[in-house]
Design goal:
The chain has one domain (about 5-65). It is α+β, with helices and mostly antiparallel strands and about 70 residues long. The protein has helices spanning about 30, 45-65; strands at about 5, 10-15, 20-25, 35-40. GO terms for molecular function: methenyltetrahydrofolate cyclohydrolase activity; methylenetetrahydrofolate dehydrogenase (NADP+) activity. InterPro entries: NAD(P)-bd_dom_sf, THF_DH/CycHdrlase, THF_DH/CycHdrlase_NAD-bd_dom. One of its GO terms (cellular component) is cytosol.
Length: about 70
């Protein structure tokens, strides 16, 4: 069976030792030996969840305002 890829999109903000920290939904230590790859948290898929909808919004606006 091929190794799975984890795209960890969930985050939970917690306070640890008086500092705010983002935790992911996947326990890295539990899956690191079986995963082909794991997206990091933070700095993983988050930028794409902003960029893709923005790109689609711009494409929709261009389609509505085009003279074709």
């Amino acid at each position: 069976m091929p190794a799975p890829y984890w795209f960890d999109v969930g985050t939970t903000a917690v306070e640890i030792d008086g500092k705010r920290k983002l935790l992911d939904d996947v326990d890295f230590d539990d899956v690191k030996d079986i995963a082909a790859a794991i997206s990091p948290v933070p700095a993983g898929v988050g930028p794409m969840t902003i960029a893709c909808p923005m790109k689609n919004t711009l494409k929709a606006a261009e389609a509505q305002t085009s003279k074709e």
